[in-house]
Amino acid sequence: MRFDPSGxxxxxxxxQSASRSKGHDFADGQSKFFLRMVKKLGWKIAPTYQGLDAxxxxxxxxxxxxxxxxxxxxxxxxxxxxxxxxxGWQIGRVENSGLRIRIWxxxxxxxxxxxxxxxxxxxxxxxxxxxNFKSKLERMAxxxxxxx
Length: 148
Known about the structure:
This protein is rod-shaped. Strands 1-2 form a two-stranded antiparallel ribbon. The longest helix has 40 residues, at 6-45. The chain has a domain at 22-46 and 83-145. The relative contact order is 0.16. The chain is mainly alpha-helical. It has six helices and two strands, in the order ααααββαα. The protein starts with 5 loop residues before the first helix and ends with a helix. Helix 1 (6-45) packs antiparallel against helix 6 (121-145).
């Protein structure tokens, strides 16, 4: 009796196509989870309206501002600008080449680097996402090899 490898090749082909589609879905889901987490943490560090009002009261209207701007206008600007760090996060680029999927998550706000250096929001979000990454990856591997 001879061994016919065609069945094995078909199974490997099905596993490969399943791993590509499920891998892309997995990477997309994890990137969106990271994006939601970093936005959520960004909103947590954003100043509150009450906090901005308290600073205004504490400084008795002597806020640092542009020339020609009143302190009330500056307070209104700060309230409107509240949360720009959190809102600025987005998926910048997705690169899918062969077995590799790269997803860039960026924040193009002007002071995003300063805020990130101070509060380490992306690193905290990466820790949260990384905690359940391995279990989800193992679950996906079982689904892919289940085709075999």
